[in-house]
Amino acid sequence: MKALKCILLALLTLCILMSAQADGTGITGSANATVEFYVYAQSGTSLTFSQDKGTILRSVGGKANLYGGFDISWYPTGQSYAAQTASLDKASASIRLSGGGYYTVRVSPWTMERLKSRDSYLGYPGVYTGWQTPAQWSLTNAGGAQVSTTPLYSYATATPLPWWYAPTATPTPWWYAPTATPTPWWYAPTATPVPWWYATATPQPSVKAKIYVYYRLTDGSLITYKTQELTPGTHYITNDLNGSYFKLVGQSYQVVTVSASGVASSPSVTFYFQYNSMGGVSAPTPAPTPAPTAVPRSAAVRVYYKLLGGATLSYETRVLYPGLYQISYDSRYSGIPGLTFVGPAVYQVSVNDQGVASVSDLTFYFNQQAVATTTPIPFYYYTATPAPYSLLNEAATNQTAIIGAQKIFPRPQPGKGKNTFNYEAAGQKVTVHSKAKSLQNDGTWWICFSGTLKCWGETYEIDHMWIRVDYFNQKSFDLDRLPVDPQYQ
Fold this sequence. Notes:
about 40% strand, 3 helices, mainly beta, five-stranded mixed sheet, single chain
């Protein structure tokens, strides 16, 4: 009998292994569902995933054919804590499995919000609504490994059982039935069931965050404002101020994220405009709606940077909301010869619930010594209209920015000239020097930048080339503080 059990178990194991596919064909999925399958890697194995583009619908009309996004995770079966991940967001991707192991592999599609974030550099932020034809993926090669849609033999144990093993316990015969009397099909409990429409829980109100949307001229003057309530999630706040008198400066949308508890990533967003004179027509009152009252719960604190003798080097206005703040010197003049920071190093500022600050202004002081240089100390006026750009003070106004697009196409002039080359440089840091409006007169900002880019195993030096601002991660630097290049004014 024991020998018979061994033979039967061996045949069962062989059937399971034979039913598992060796080349991975037949394992497929789409952007609409998560798929899980199982692999036995007899030796070091590479799994190759390929995908076909789908058709996605856009809220502004039209469609786009694009690759979906998928997260591939894998781990030794029964050891999910050791999971590793990779992304499939192009035509193909591969992962590597160690030999002699049983693995669980899961392919999960990205959310629509994540696809929007990936493709924002294409100019499509917030316009995807859903798949018309979902992107499809398939496992096109498994390197000789055994692949199955059902758990393989070692699913219940970390150590696979040998083929000759048979349990010693006497199995329950197939004809065995429990002695307990089953509940008849016609039986119904005597308790009165709760009707489907009944609910005792009081529904909770939805959590929303209230933000302010400001519309200002480039000199900081307020045109108008509105409030907006946002539910938890990512929102693209768009410009709603239109008309012949005002021309938008910069991008037409800003991103605000609201947490599950209703806290917004930013209490306000601001859109800047230039006033058009309209051929001599007198300027309208800069408010298409009645002049707004001061927004509650905020205070404007002026921050000065001065010499001990009283001369002002620069100043800025900071809008503070209720709370306690530490405003510190940010070392902005540390590279200027002959200029030494004196103090104070930090100020404590509080703002109460009525929007009243403990101080209306504060000052950081510097001492100036005579030095053998003809370069004057630059004056920095931090508003929406920055100080004129000059090569003499370029080092003092440079900022570090992060490339946000998958590929970038620098040009020799802002908005004109042939693309010199394209570089896959997402996430790499560069130095931004100045900004200028596009020479195509479309109102977009272009940024002059330099840096060392690494892609395709090579290193490329970029020296004062131009690219549109939305190719950068715009949270990584301050566009307003970037000087305007006079060559393209």
